[in-house]
Specification:
There is one protein chain. The radius of gyration is 29 Å and the shape is elongated. Strands 1-2 form a two-stranded parallel sheet. Helix content is about 75%, strand content about 0%.
Length: about 325
């Protein structure tokens, strides 16, 4: 059974269809901006007002296009959308993704404006009507100037207090979504794999066997931590953000934490590999203490004492078990 494309080439569209496409595109963009506003309204109310304002601008563009269509072609607007035109720019459905960061939303909005400007410039080449050319040129300029409009809206709604509040909210979201699960994974991977790796090392004094045990322990712990983090909380009530992002952060950092002191056992000499692995362990533990101090505001020496002491005890347990 064959597959057929029912999309049309942009160059094959009539002037009426180009106008209809512009109208539907403005409608879609206004809806997207309102979706962004609703996504941001709880934690970033000032930024939500910015996107409300941008949605109103898109409504204004749509009304001007509809008025022009009525004047030239009548009241019946052909049903044609982006997906009906081959090679036409598409909006990625990121507005359907929950827990988008405010930075990602602003980046997507900038991409929307650039692609819309290019559409109007291309549409401008497809018409000879003076009024239509003027409107399409005005809309291209408006899309190009949306960054200025957005800046004006930000100046209007994002005062110093609002910016400070949103900055704190963004930092809190970053900590909850990335830092906290990543730190938990790094701690688990660094500490929990110490005992099996060093027990194997001293029991066998075989570097390759030790590396394989370390690799298995690290990857297994990473998979376990990643799935546990992702399944434990969907982020809706706690506000901790996307479970997928948290799962990846936790799983990857758990694996990295374990591999750090497993990789030295690729060195064939047992004692050289072990000395390097012990050095790596203390670097890992100090790194954990630094992260706790920088992002979690835990006093550095208290964090270092807790982490290094705990790691040293687990390391000692592994060595003792391996020598028994």
């Amino acid at each position: 059974m064959g597959f057929f494309s029912y999309s049309r080439r942009f160059d094959d569209l009539s002037e009426q269809e180009v106008l209809a496409l512009a109208i539907s595109s403005e409608e879609d963009d206004a809806r997207i901006y309102r979706s962004y506003a609703e996504t941001l309204r709880k934690d970033f109310p000032a930024s939500a007002q910015v996107f409300d304002g941008m949605a109103l601008e898109e409504d204004g563009h749509r009304k001007r296009l509809i008025a022009l269509h009525q004047e030239r072609f009548g009241d019946v607007i052909p049903l044609i959308r982006r997906e009906h035109v081959a090679g036409f720019y598409a909006r990625k459905p990121v507005w359907l993704i929950k827990n988008l960061s405010v930075e990602r939303i602003r980046e997507e909005a900038e991409n929307m404006e650039r692609s819309a400007e290019q559409f109007y410039l291309n549409a401008l080449k497809r018409t000879t009507d003076a009024a239509t050319r003027k409107l399409l040129g005005d809309l291209a300029a408006a899309e190009a100037g949306h960054q200025t409009t957005a800046q004006k809206l930000e100046d209007e709604h994002l005062n110093e207090d609002a910016e400070a509040d949103e900055s704190r909210a963004a930092k809190r979201q970053f900590l909850l979504t990335w830092v906290q699960p990543g730190l938990a994974g790094l701690m688990d991977g660094s500490v929990s794999t110490l005992a099996p790796i060093f027990a194997t090392a001293f029991a066998t004094q075989d570097t390759w066997t030790t590396f394989l045990v370390g690799l298995a322990a690290s990857v297994g712990a990473g998979i376990s931590m990643g799935f546990t983090e992702a399944a434990s909380d969907d982020g809706q009530l706690s506000g901790r953000g996307s479970p997928t992002k948290r799962g990846f952060a936790s799983g990857i950092m758990t694996t990295v934490g374990g591999l750090g002191h497993a990789l030295p056992y690729l060195i064939t000499d047992f004692w050289t590999a072990t000395v390097v692995a012990i050095i790596v362990v203390f670097v890992e533990l100090w790194a954990i203490a630094w992260i706790q101090n920088k992002y979690m505001e835990t006093p550095f020496f208290r964090a270092a004492f807790q982490v290094v002491l705990g790691g040293a005890l687990v390391l000692a347990a592994g060595v003792l078990i391996g020598n028994s």
